Structures are given as C-alpha cells and as structure tokens.
Amino acid sequence: MKVTFWQIKVVHTAVFWVLSGCVLYALFSGVADRITPWTWLAVGLVVLEGGVLVSSGWICPLTILAERLGAARGSVADIFLPKWFADRIFPICGTTFLIACVVLVMRLVR
C-alpha cells in the first residue's frame, strides 16, 4: 500500500491535536491540583515526542516522509493548520509545556 501525502497530513494533524491535548491536560492538572496517572501519561507522551524530534534532528519524521513525497523543504504543507500557527507550534506548545511542568513540580514539592 502506497502512503499518500493526504494520509500523512491527516496523521500528522491528528498527532498534533493529541499532543496538544496532552500539553493542555498537563497544565490543567497542575493548575487544578488534580494530578493523576493520566497526567503522567500526557507528560510521558510529550516527552516521548521530544525524544523522537531530538533523534531526528528536530524535524518530525512525518515531515521528512512528506518531503520525500514532494512537499517543499521546511514547509508546513504536511499538516492541516494555518501557516502562521504551524510556524509557531514549537514556541507555543514548548512554552506551555514548560509552564505545565513547573506548575506540576511546584504542586508535588508543596
């Protein structure tokens, strides 16, 4: 079965929404002081994604696959998001996750 560019976009977008939900859930858990096993699952998934990104040179493997199918290098054409938002995913989600981790640590230390 040949993977199409459209399929990559669907999967990449779904992964983005799941991981964004994990970031927001981790933040909510810390702010609401409701730390559960689901919190740690969410944190673990985001950390796992970070490991995947580090191991592939800070480029998502799905982006690499999309480029092999003809997407322009460095483009955000492989995800169903507006370009202005897709260009800022790492700073927005990374900062939010960092804040979530700080809040979680503060809750655990207290």
Please provide a brief summary of the model:
The protein is mainly alpha-helical. Helices cover 73% and strands 0% of the residues. It is built from five helices and no strands.
Defining traits:
110 residues, mainly alpha, 5 helices, 0% strand
Topology:
Layout: H1 5-32, H2 37-55, H3 61-68, H4 83-86, H5 89-109
Helix pairs in contact: 1-2, 1-3, 1-5
Overview of the molecule:
With 110 residues, the chain is an all-alpha fold. The chain has one domain. 73% of the residues lie in helices and 0% in strands. The chain has 5 helices and no strands. It has helices at 5-32, 37-55, 61-68, 83-86, 89-109. Helix 1 (5-32) crosses helix 2 and helix 1 runs antiparallel to helix 3. It is elongated, with a radius of gyration of 16 Å. The N and C termini lie far apart (53 Å). The model has no long low-confidence stretch (mean pLDDT 90).
| N→C terminal distance | 53 Å
Detail the poorly predicted runs. none
Helix content: over 70%
* Total number of beta strands: 0
Q: Tally the helices: what do you get?
A: 5
Please indicate the count of domains. Answer: 1
H-E string: HHHHH
Structural class: mainly alpha
Form type? elongated
Nearest-angstrom radius of gyration? 16 Å
